[in-house]
Amino acid sequence: MANQKILAKKQEVIDEIKENVNNSSTFVLFDYRGLTDSEIKELRCALREAGASYKVYKNTLMARAFKDLNIELSDALEGPSALAYSTDQIAPIKVIADFAKDHETLKLKIGYVDGEIADEAKLQEYAKIPSRDGLLTMLAGGMIGLVRDLSICLNLYSEQKEEN
Fold it and tell me: What average pLDDT score do residues 87-96 get?
């Protein structure tokens, strides 16, 4: 029989995983094998700048936490896995996908975005979505264009009225 202290420690880790998953709108499992310490540090800094975090847990403990949360990801929990999570739906996916472009050993496995499981192909689609700031810039540019066109039309209309 396992020692009660060991079981309590494992339960603490399971509770930590469940808390991280519950407090985030997105989490991603990825394979980090083949990355050097400096590359992992670089990835961690990039995730932190994007408002995301990541941690490496034992697969068995993640499986138990996911089972408690009724999330079926057992197929993705083979081999070493790291868990990246954030309240931003796209941030961890974009950071890891961009990092994987330069580091071929990094592989996205599976994600969970707003209550839905996303496979690797779906995660790649999410990674192509512009950032929140980029989308806001596009929206502002579109709105400025409309206002500019309206001002031109009003100016032409006022010039036409002056001539008559």
Answer: 85
